[in-house]
Structure formats: C-alpha cells, structure tokens
Amino acid sequence: MYVDKQKARKHEYRIPEKTLWLVAVLGGAIGTTIGMKWFRHKTKHASFKWGFPALAIIWLGLLLYLS
User: Fold this and answer.
1) C-alpha span between 28 and 25 (Å, rounded)
2) pLDDT at residue number 2
3) Which residue in 4, 8, 11, 54 is a FRET match for 37, CA 20 to 30 A apart?
4) Which residues contact 51 (CB under 8 A, 6 or more apart)?
5) Sign of the alpha-carbon torsion through 40, 35, 25, 11
6) C-alpha distance from residue 41 to each of 19, 32, 63, 67 (Å)
7) Which residues cross the membrane (predicted)?
8) Residue 10 and residue 50 in contact, taking contact as beta carbons nearer than 8 Å
9) Could you give the angle at which helices 29-39 and 2-9 cross, rounded to 10 degrees?
C-alpha cells in the first residue's frame, strides 16, 4: 500500500488493483488492511474498505481453526 501510494503521488505507474487483491487473497489480507488504514490508501473504494477487513477476518478464523 505504501509503494502504491507513493507512486500515486508521483503520477507514476501504479500497482494494479488485481495484484493488491491477489496478495490479500493469498494470505496478506491482514497486512493489506493495516496498510490501507495506516497509509490512508484505497479507503474510499468500497470493495477495499469492506473487502480487505472481511478477508482478514476470514484468514484469522482460518488460522485459529487450523492451529
């Protein structure tokens, strides 16, 4: 999220939203959610605002269930 935010400020090539979602789905949902909040990036997009935290909760539940 930090890197994409910096690129947005400089009007450079951005990280595709598909890539951000792929990282979240493959286990980075907690980190992407924290990064989104911390760097105030993608917080106006409803899919990120609600999707990343929901995915993080699912991952936490899965981790607790498997441990």
Assistant:
1) 7
2) 92
3) 11
4) 21, 24
5) positive
6) 15, 10, 26, 32
7) 20-38, 50-66
8) no
9) 40
Which pLDDT value is given to residue 59? 94
**Tens of pLDDT, residues 21-48:** 999 999 999 999 999 999 999 999 999 9
pLDDT tens per residue across span 48-64: 999 999 999 999 999 99
Task: Answer positive or negative: Cα dihedral of 37, 39, 45, 48.
Answer: negative
Tell me how far apart the alpha carbons of residues 63 and 1 are, in angstroms, rounded to a whole number. 23
* DSSP for the chain, written as a single string: -HHHHHHHHTT-PPPPHHHHHHHIIIIIHHHHHHHHHHHT-STT-HHHHHHHHHHHHHHHHHHHHH-
